[in-house]
């Protein structure tokens, strides 16, 4: 199935990514990129704290660096707005082992 078919099926059927739909069996993105994209989407929708744990852990497990994860926050800032990023930054920071409430040493 090529990208046009996938796009058409997503637009028409609202396919369920958790189901057995073959649309979601084809992933052209590598695991790291997909994990970073999922983190960006989570930031955009204002996800809950535990969701950031899962998303950042998945990105790190897929080979993303801490700098790349922080770059995702910076990269989505203009699109999702400062309030979303400000809300996500402490959550992501905690997952990465950094308490954003502590002053730098």
Structure description:
The chain has 105 residues and is an all-alpha fold. It has a domain at 29-95. It is built from 5 helices and no strands. Helix 2 (31-45) runs antiparallel to helix 3 (49-61), helix 2 crosses helix 4 (66-80) and helix 3 crosses helix 5 (82-95). The longest helix has 15 residues, at 31-45. The mean pLDDT is 84.
Rounded average pLDDT: 84
Number of strands: 0
| Count of DSSP H/I helices | 5
Radius of gyration: 16 Å
Q: Strand fraction band? A: under 5%
Low-confidence stretches: none
Structural class: mainly alpha
What is the N-to-C succession of helices and strands? HHHHH
Q: Whole-Å distance between the termini?
A: 53 Å
Shape: elongated
Proportion of residues in helical segments = 55-70%
Largest beta sheet, briefly?
none
Write the layout of secondary structure elements.
Layout: H1 3-13, H2 31-45, H3 49-61, H4 66-80, H5 82-95
Helix pairs in contact: 2-3, 2-4, 3-5, 4-5
Task: Produce a short descriptive summary.
The protein is mainly α and 105 residues long. It is built from 5 helices and no strands. It has helices spanning 3-13, 31-45, 49-61, 66-80, 82-95.
């Amino acid at each position: 199935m090529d990208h046009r078919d996938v796009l058409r099926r997503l637009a028409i059927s609202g396919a369920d990514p958790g189901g057995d739909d073959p649309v979601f069996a084809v992933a052209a993105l590598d695991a790291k990129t997909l994990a970073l994209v999922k983190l960006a989407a989570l930031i955009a929708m204002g996800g809950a704290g535990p969701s950031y744990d899962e998303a950042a852990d998945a990105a790190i497990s897929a080979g993303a660096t801490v700098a790349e994860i922080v770059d995702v926050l910076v990269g989505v800032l203009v699109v999702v707005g400062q309030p979303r990023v400000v809300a996500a930054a402490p959550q992501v920071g905690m997952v990465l082992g950094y308490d954003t409430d502590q002053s730098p040493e």
